[in-house]
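Narrative of activities, Objective 1.

The group set out to show that a structural description can be obtained from nothing but a protein's sequence at a throughput compatible with the screening campaign. Below is one input-output pair from the validation batch, recorded exactly as produced.
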Amino acid sequence: MKKFLSSEEVWEDKEKATEMKKRFSEVDKVLRTMRDFERELDDIGTGLTMLEEEDDNQLLSEMSARLKRFSGKIERESLKRYMDGEYDKGPALITISPGAGGTESQDWASMLFRMYIRYLEREGFEFKLISYQPAEEAGIKEATILVEEEYAYGYLSSESGVHRLIRISPFDASHRRHTSFAAVSVIPYIEMDIDVELDPGDLRVETFRASGPGGQHVNVTDSAVRITHIPTGIVVSCQNERSQHVNKAVAMNILKSKLHQIEMEEIEGRIDSMRDKRSVKFGSQIRTYTLHPYRLVKDHRTGVELTDTGEVLDGHISPFIEAYLKARSEKSK
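Output recorded for this entry:
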């Protein structure tokens, strides 16, 4: 096939040849993935054969973990058949912000932030912390994560919406039950060549010192950049890179992605969540996390319920994502 694609006759029609090359690349990637699965399955089979021949608790534990990881890979790969949207194959931006309620909702937003970081780490997704704004007492004012993995938007689009938490407040001396809200926005991260015109007069560019949870996810520098799009009120920032120039370029790309998303949503007649028209309050939530008086996480769109709230908040959200993708696929038929 490679020889065929390199022939001069094929490239007489450049547009058709480019499409064929793209299609070949996609098929080749699927085949390589299948071959990787076959090799891994053979290795697991060898390990299981060894277990039949000898009683080795350490090997048993290792093979159990490998089987669990392999099962997760197969499951994740199988979900791709439900992702046929325009941007499903591309990277994604996740923004977490608290609703009304001060410290309570800010703390809840930070819990969600940790949940998504743990999910991305569990799945082995490549990601960067683009911006992180800690709140004064506890929690966060906002955080944005760029997930650069293939199909990131397809997997994570299910998380966009309002998330509700019910718990005994750690900030209430009377130990009363509180309800908190936080909004999660997931949009496709689109490369710089998208056709979005920006008037420099509509932009307010500021620099500030970066801050964050530490570790590998953020570089603390004096070169963080914040850009405000005055007509819409959209504010984006980037603090991940050490160069102010690079941070500004990334922030501009995020702004273009958000404006492009707004255009698409307006064209399709959907509610424009990027301009805060979606109310972050009771009745608008997509998922409720109840920690008191019982423990339950319920997705209101699919009906999926999980009782191990600790595991969910530690990033085990794949069941919700899978159910959403399947339900979306059925709805579109």
